Amino acid sequence: MPHTSHRLKSLLAATLLSATALMPTRAAVAAPAVASFADQLGYKLTVVPNATQDGFNTRLDLTVPRSGTPTGAWALYFGSVSPVEPVGDSVFDLTHINGDNYKLTPKSGTTLKPGETYSLTWAGHAASGYLAMPNAYIVADGTPPTTIAASRTTFDPATGLESLPFVTPITDEATTRKGPNDATQWLTPERAFIQNASRQVAQAKPDIIILPTPVSAKHLDGQPLNLNAGVALKLNGLTIPDIKAALDASHLKLASHGVPVEITIGAGQPESYHLLAQDGRITITAADAAGAAYAIESLSQQAAFEHNRLKPIEISDAPRFGFRGLHIDLARNFHSKAFILNTIDQMAEYKLNRLHLHLGDDEGWRLAIGALPELTEIGSHRCHDLKEDTCLLPQLGAGPQGSKIVDGYLSRADYIEIVKAAAARHIEVIPSFDMPGHSRAAVRSMEARYRRLMAEGKPDAANEFRLQDPDDKTVYDSIQHYNDNTLNVCIPSTYHFIETVIDDIKAMHDEAGVPLKIYHIGADETAGAWTNSPACQALVKEKGLDPAHMTPYFITQVSQMLGQKGIEPAGWSDGMGHVKPEDMPKQVQSNSWGGLFGGGVAEAYRQANRGWDIVMSTPEVLYLDMPYAPDPKERGMDWASRGTDLFKVFAFMPENLAANASIMTNIQAHGQTIADTEPLEAGRKITGMQGQLWSEGVRADGIADYMFYPRVLALAERAWHTGAWEPAYVAGKSYSYGDRQVDGHALLADWQNFNDRLTPLLAELDREQVAYRLPPPGARVTGGIFEANLAYGDLKIQYRTQGGKWLTYGDAVEVRGPVEARSVAPDGRRFSRIVTVK
């Protein structure tokens, strides 16, 4: 497969992701007392009961080593994505630095005794142990900052999954409830067994396994075509480079005397194709080169399934949406070029065609811009530099010296290579730098530039790209708790900066031979900045603007700038919804990320009625950084969904949004009604789907694989193919949980068909070294009889009793005592996490 060398390099890196390789190592020059203190200090996070209605708090326990504390002043720095608001007494003073950065110092006059444990307790708790941030560190006078050994991560060699050993295991289900109305239940092995069984349908296994599902596909009469000797191509209206990437990725080989394959470009819906394999030859008619490539992907999947003895087949196919995308957040934690290239390969395999690269946010700037080297010299690296002259503060558990895994950026050559690789696979790259909020990496990098040039006596150059009004006294707090993460939208240098960035990216695309078509502004979650900015006060007065609506002013200005360059502006729906459509370019994309149960349906349709391109990015279903299941052992942020499993993604209805209420509960596991209060106008429609991977807790490429796959395959299915069970949209129609307006029997039959087709494709992911999630078994013991099943994949299940030898599960078996179970990857090299039943 293409980029195998990249994947091997990536896997080699993953193998080295031990506590010392993934996370920052202690500086060799650290003073022995500080080094010993950081190595021996006990560090533990535990969810504990409280007396309030919420029920639980978080407690940090610090156990002083027998050798005592360092001499002189010292402080402990740690990260928390949730606010730390202490309750009760403590021997520590707590200071919020910025974002998720906090500092603990012993209170004046306090002496910490060797061997004693001291605690800090704060309000609130997490439903998963994976929401904690690793790599707390000690800073002492005259020594480099030193990571606390007990706060490092480890990796399980059997699963390849990251662990946070400093988090006390969460074992009480009540611990993870978010308030008295939360009805969420853990997906225990026993509950998973029942759920898995309820979704299984007894039906014939499919003999056509192409995924995503074609519009129509049927076997024909006749003799199989033997593809073992290869295929001989004849092209009409296209060239080999148009389909080379698809051929390279396929199981087909070219041979002058192979089965004749004639490919012709004709009329039809973009990306569509018709394939006929019969009577010893194959003919493909495609609307364009992308359609021809997709025909080859489909042919390859089916041929591999039939061991290159292809039964005669006819396929007619076309996509549901023209926009079928994936979003990768490189800003919060970096992901390697190898990972991106391999993701592009998988996208092509499953006919996804838009790659949205999130390259700039509060925690990092990840693309080299020639005129502004500080953006990557400072904004792509984290370290303990409180002035931030050389790096950003170590957010998200990066540690005091940063890390080669979570730090980094794409060079100009890297980005051009990615754009070219994507274009060869008929995938469009959409760059994104979130603005005007979520821009701290840019703001701090330009402030460092300003200080350097001022020190060099160059005030004009220093101010050329400054992003803050120096006289702005506004105090604000962003949703991620930064007080300095927003561009000032009222100063010319901000727009000069943005245009410089856009022009440089546009030049990279031009050099790659792939014009920049869409640029994503971001425009979401802007904090209440600028109120006391003299520059904004003057601009408001000069132009008669509404001081409470300066974000729409910014979006409009940048969108007009993009429109003049022939680039379509895109942004997140919350920010885009406040602009005046008449002031925007004719073509605009909005990523709809409003919650289904929180007004997102009306927002999506309202913006579609403006004539915009609406790409569904619904967080309850399409944020792939959410956990697979409500379980404290499942990683993922959980503000939008406590469990987004493969079935939930598969069952999403992107064109009839209210209908999702029939089969989906809200975040507290309650059924709810969704009323279509702002219906789609005649002729308006949803134009795409995009799966998002945000990276606050995704600190390695292997973890990104785990969160993406196999959910990406269900996303690809829904973005390409409309399920026959999806009710047609009827303007104004409401849906309620369990109202049976969605044909549940047809849905489950289609799910079973998808699940059966998934099995051989998981083996393919193994061969391509993609570290997808293996489902933990559902399991139960009833009357001494052990039973197990799986949510998807038809993989092998292994079990053992009392720490004995692993055995392959075949059918219900008599056992004694607790039983452990796990699933096994087709290649036998990886295992799911272990579940235990009694």
Automatic annotation (TrEMBL):
Family listed: Belongs to the glycosyl hydrolase 20 family.
BP term (GO), one: glycosaminoglycan metabolic process
Signal peptide bounds: 1-30
Name this polypeptide is given: beta-N-acetylhexosaminidase
EC number per UniProt: 3.2.1.52
Molecular function as annotated in GO: beta-N-acetylhexosaminidase activity; polysaccharide binding
Keyword Oxidoreductase belongs to the record: no
Organism phylogeny: Bacteria, Pseudomonadati, Pseudomonadota, Alphaproteobacteria, Caulobacterales
Keyword Hydrolase: yes
The Chitobiase/beta-hexosaminidases N-terminal domain, residue ranges: 39-191
PANTHER family: BETA-HEXOSAMINIDASE, BETA-N-ACETYLHEXOSAMINIDASE
Keywords: Glycosidase, Hydrolase, Signal
Cellular component GO terms held in the UniProt record: membrane
Species whose genome carries this gene: Asticcacaulis taihuensis
Catalytic activity reported: Hydrolysis of terminal non-reducing N-acetyl-D-hexosamine residues in N-acetyl-beta-D-hexosaminides
SMART domains from the UniProt entry: CHB_HEX (SM01081)
Residue numbers annotated as active site: E525 (proton donor)
